[in-house]
Amino acid sequence: MSLLDHERYCAAITDETALLRDTVRGADLTRTVPTCPDWTIGRLAVHVGQAHRWVEAMVRDRAAEELPDDAEHIADYEPAAGADALDAWLADGADKLAGALRTAGAEQPMWSWARPQNAGFWARRMAMETVVHRADAAIAAERPYDPAPELAADALDEWFELATDPDAVAEDPRARELLGSGQTLHLHATDVPGAEWLIVRDPDRLRWSRTHAKADMALRATLTDLLLVLQRRLSPDSPRLEIIGERALLDHWLARTAFGASAEDETV
């Protein structure tokens, strides 16, 4: 699939962080986040800011290996107390990350935990990280969430790329359970022309493409709701969704596609 350009990802990091800040501003920072129940809204915001600073440090240093994600190795890792300080800290971290990525350029080689091993991976990953966690904050604060269509679609593209990567499937017993005998899942955004995906579960690999096709299971919803369902932020039981065909295929997919078993592990 074709990516958005590097500058679009860099801009999305700062733009989506600004929208996250708007969502968090004035909210009860101690309120539990339903989609990440181990976190409060405040902890969620700190997680995003710490992810930005962790990646910024690695991009700045052109890291050839993973940097520990902690205060010992990353400057300004914790915000000062108070909502205003958190807001300023989030903005500063996003600006620094976007600046480091722009300086590096997309093709700059560096460590990453998936392909490609370059700064472009992190520009996209941090943009999508912020897009999805803004949804968590919006759900918790009961505020609107409507990402730009190109970002929502690219977040789904990235999700499928990560979930179907042959190396990741080979290493993850849960992901190997997604291999099948040709079963198909189709996703259809009802509000954005051309925003459709097909997943094919072959015996030896998982395939996906942007296409319209008949499938064993079809999920129809707005593009935002497709993103929320596939990212496990919206229940497949929601009345906002239309599921046609073998519902069990969707449930099976959702149960086996996450970065980890807990909120701390599911994101970066």
TrEMBL record:
Residues 11-138 form the Mycothiol-dependent maleylpyruvate isomerase metal-binding domain. InterPro entries: DinB/YfiT-like, Maleyloyr_isom, MDMPI_C-term_domain, MDMPI_metal-binding. The keyword Cell cycle does not apply. The keyword Iron does not apply. One of its GO terms (molecular function) is isomerase activity. Keywords: Isomerase. This is Maleylpyruvate isomerase N-terminal domain-containing protein.
